[in-house]
Amino acid sequence: MLETINIVLDDAEDKQLGENRLVKSWLDDVRDLAYDMEDLLDEFMIEAAQVKSGAESSTSKGQKKRLFPFFGQDGSSGSNSNLCLNLFETKVQEINGRLKKIITRKAHLSLRENAVGISNHTNKRLQSTSLPETRFFGREKEEAEILELLIGEVENSDARLSIVPIVGMGGVGKTAMAQRLYNDPKMSSYFERKAWVCVSDVFDVLHITKTILQLITRLSCEGKDLNWLQVKLKDDLSEKKFLVVLDDVWNEKYGEWTSLLKPFEAGAKGSKIIITTRNHSVVSITGASPYSLKELSVDNCTDLLAYHALEARNFERHPHLQIVGKKIAEKCRGLPLTAKILGGLLRNKENLDEWEDILNNRMWDVASAKNDEVLPALKLSYVHLPSYLKRCFTYCAVFPKDYEFERDELVLLWITEGFLDGRKAKENILRSGKKYFDELVSRSFFQQSNIDTSKFLMHDLLNDLAKSIADKTCFTSRESRVEESQVVSDENDATFKEKARYASFVSRYVTSKSLRAYATMKVLRSLMLLTIQSNDKKGIFMSGKVLHDLLTNLKY
């Protein structure tokens, strides 16, 4: 029965990100059932260990060792043991009943088997074109630096072809930068041939080659095989300087990459291929040095927001919106995509109340499916994660925004929570955990701290994404005023009591009152007490009584 669920989980996870509420509800129930099954097994193992410990103690005292864990000391049926056994049997039957209902519901959801992390909704991302944005804000320094990489003369280099990878998180403006460069007048005079291809999800060497050849030669290539296409492309590019842009590349297979490059090796010295990607692993197969595109400044984000909302260069003609506009721009966290989307939401709206509604919207606390346009690129990044990384990333929803963590710290948490294969030797588990972490860094899910290079953090929008996926399984709260012990929570929702598995509390001072909510969480697995600043050397202040109250109230 479990296998019938497992083979459709990838497709279900993709569809729930695509605003399918029935699938999301079903997936939430599957997740809860899996957690409850693990909890029941843990309880059984704990009970068995306690019984075994008691039996060994009795044996050491000359008493007969019990052969059956649910029998009394003398081998007869013990009332407490029978009660415990009956309780386990009841729980197993209840879980079995829930499992059957879940399988029945699955049949009505049209889920595809053996989906590999790419569903129909991921293809809804509009294909990029070579046409640039009508207005471009900031990036003068970055544009000049990349332009130099493209047309600058490199001393002591005889390379005919160079790769220029532009790397950055989703929504940071990689495609816009590539469009800007592609359409720069200097390019037309420097390169004899130009072509732009939006690669996106599937790295199809035949399709990419055909597209480039058609753009350059205007030939009809329908029905032609890869050999014919590459021979023609090689002939046309021979001893000519060219520029090709491969936008939104995900492919990490070296063989496919080298196959694509074959005809380009015939070009003249100085030929370039720009690739845009979120994944550093993509860059590694090219052997080129990446150009990392960072976030926009707040001022540039503000101007970008004004342009898309008010068709103005800035807020000078709308002074009543200037303050709230800048606050909204600050929340964009330097992502042009977000500023553009929010500008579209506020298009031609000059009422201050409408702008303040956006500023104070709950989406800034937890991104939900209702605000799907805010995070489409980041959701696409998540969809492309292997299944073993999805759980590790989603767990990070337990961290508050801007919390900085060390690699080893997070890896040990993953191991403690059972996200890595416990059957491996300790060294292998640690190695796997570090590999998982490094892979998330390479995919821009974690970024290095600007303050302490040994630490990492999640961009706010990625933290929102993790929270929207984790939903009620992760709970984060903080104490706003320690002296009054008033807890400010990400979600004051009773369902957390039934659903929360992982939780964190952020404060330097911990009181029994501030932790009262956690004692009511029926299935809580772990609680982390964190300081507001992860580098706070003073640590957390908590009395022995508070610790005692906490431990005695928690279920486990």
From TrEMBL:
- What Pfam families does the database record attribute to this sequence? NB-ARC, Rx_N, WHD_DRP
Top-level taxon in the UniProt lineage: Eukaryota
Q: Which PANTHER family match?
A: DISEASE RESISTANCE RPP13-LIKE PROTEIN 1, PLANT BROAD-SPECTRUM MILDEW RESISTANCE PROTEIN RPW8
Q: Molecular function (GO) terms listed?
A: ATP binding
Domain Disease resistance N-terminal residue range list: 2-58
Q: Which UniProt keywords apply?
A: ATP-binding, Nucleotide-binding, Plant defense, Repeat
Query: Where does the record place the NB-ARC domain?
Result: 156-311
Q: List this protein's GO terms for biological process.
A: defense response
Protein name, per record? Disease resistance RPP13-like protein 1
**What organism is this sequence from?**
Eucalyptus globulus
